[in-house]
Automatic annotation (TrEMBL):
<dbReference type="InterPro" id="IPR039797">
    <property type="entry name" value="Pecanex"/>
</dbReference>
<feature type="transmembrane region" description="Helical">
    <location>
        <begin position="136"/>
        <end position="159"/>
    </location>
</feature>
<feature type="transmembrane region" description="Helical">
    <location>
        <begin position="39"/>
        <end position="61"/>
    </location>
</feature>
<keyword id="KW-1133">Transmembrane helix</keyword>
<protein>
    <recommendedName>
        <fullName>Pecanex-like protein</fullName>
    </recommendedName>
</protein>
<keyword id="KW-0472">Membrane</keyword>
<keyword id="KW-0812">Transmembrane</keyword>
<feature type="transmembrane region" description="Helical">
    <location>
        <begin position="165"/>
        <end position="187"/>
    </location>
</feature>
<dbReference type="GO" id="GO:0016020">
    <property type="term" value="C:membrane"/>
</dbReference>
<comment type="similarity">
    <text>Belongs to the pecanex family.</text>
</comment>
<feature type="transmembrane region" description="Helical">
    <location>
        <begin position="73"/>
        <end position="95"/>
    </location>
</feature>
Length: 230
């Protein structure tokens, strides 16, 4: 290979920089190869931050001493389970309302999988693009339950009072709190919305939808070690 030959040509670089954030963030597609309506991005941001919202409610009620830690944990988990079930129900409804998603003509095969013509913020094509749903009914139940359990245990694991007692500094505790919830949101998104396709893969090869379980598994390992230590 000559010194002037790039490792990735122009269209592969474009594909990489669209796919890489999606892989890192667990599924949301914030960079598309065409102009999409703003509500497509807003809906994804809302879904991505939903676990943090519910965990924040439990954390706030616990900090205000309105709920005990156990009750705040259960509340956050139940809210997340309800939201995950709602997303799956909406995806199922959209799948029944629409047939094949209408796509725009694209000469570049690397962007053909994403080109969708959106008509409404909650239209079937928008819902199927953001939350395509699970292939198997068992996964719908399993992933929904795991989403609630993960949010509940995650809320319990990163209570601000516990972090402050551990690190002895409010500033450090806030940094750890924010980074922890970003990690939890990434894992939750893979469970409740769709599977994050790896950067080097054009289309997901996960037939039985096992990949969404890997990120929550890593988090559960850390939580299990903390619980065993306690």
């Amino acid at each position: 290979m000559g010194p002037d030959v790039p490792l990735l040509n122009e269209y592969k670089q474009e594909f990489f920089w669209k796919r890489f954030p999606q892989t890192v963030l667990g599924g949301p597609r914030f960079k598309l190869g065409y102009c999409a309506p703003p509500y497509v991005y807003v809906n994804q941001v809302v879904l991505f931050l939903t676990p943090w919202l519910f965990g924040g409610i439990g954390t706030l009620l616990c900090q205000l001493q309105l709920l005990q830690e156990l009750h705040a944990t259960v509340l956050s988990g139940m809210l997340m389970s309800g939201a995950a079930a709602g997303v799956q129900a909406l995806a199922l409804y959209a799948a029944r309302r629409s047939g094949t998603v209408e796509r725009l003509g694209a000469p570049n095969i690397l962007v053909d999988e994403e080109d969708v013509e959106f008509t409404h913020c909650v239209g079937p094509e928008t819902v199927r693009f953001i939350a395509p749903g699970k292939r198997f009914g068992l996964n719908v139940v399993l992933h929904t339950m795991l989403a609630g359990v993960l949010c509940g245990f995650g809320t319990w694991y990163v209570f601000l009072g516990r972090l402050t007692a551990l690190y002895g500094s409010i500033g450090i505790s806030l940094v750890v709190f924010v980074l922890s919830w970003v990690t939890l949101c990434i894992a939750e998104y893979s469970l409740i919305v769709n599977t994050a396709t790896e950067t080097a893969t054009f289309q997901a090869q996960d037939t039985y939808e096992i990949t969404p379980l890997t990120r929550p598994l890593y988090i559960f390992i850390f939580i299990a070690v903390d619980m065993a230590d306690r």
